[in-house]
Amino acid sequence: MATDICVLVGRRIRELRQAKGWTQTYLSVHAGVGRNYISDVELGKKEIGLRNLYLLALSLDVPLERLIQGL
User: Fold this and answer.
1) Do the domain assignments include residue 69?
2) Which range of residues forms the domain containing residue 18?
3) How many CB atoms lie within 10 A of CB 47?
4) 8 A C-beta contact, residue 41 and residue 10
5) Looking at residue 28, which CATH number applies to its domain?
6) Which candidate in 11, 40, 55, 71 could, as Cys together with 45 as Cys, close a disulfide (CB 3.0–4.6 Å)?
7) Cβ distance 59 to 30 under 8 Å?
8) What is the pLDDT of residue 55?
9) Structure confidence at residue 1 as a pLDDT band (50, 70, 90)
10) Considering only CA atoms, which of 3, 16, 7 is closest in space to residue 46?
11) H or E element at residue 4
């Protein structure tokens, strides 16, 4: 069975955040979303909306498609 898309996107966001050396708190402030939201997204517990996906891509300085490419 394929891994849930929410888990895959969350892992990608976590990898990109950690590559920058950022905490969840730093990313949440930078993106304007809650730290608990970042945690839930990274763990695949929360389905991320398009607007927030865009905000995270901007904050991480990656193209939006990078967050879902190859999943």
Assistant:
1) no
2) 5-63
3) 11
4) yes
5) 1.10.260.40
6) 40
7) yes
8) 97
9) very low
10) 7
11) none
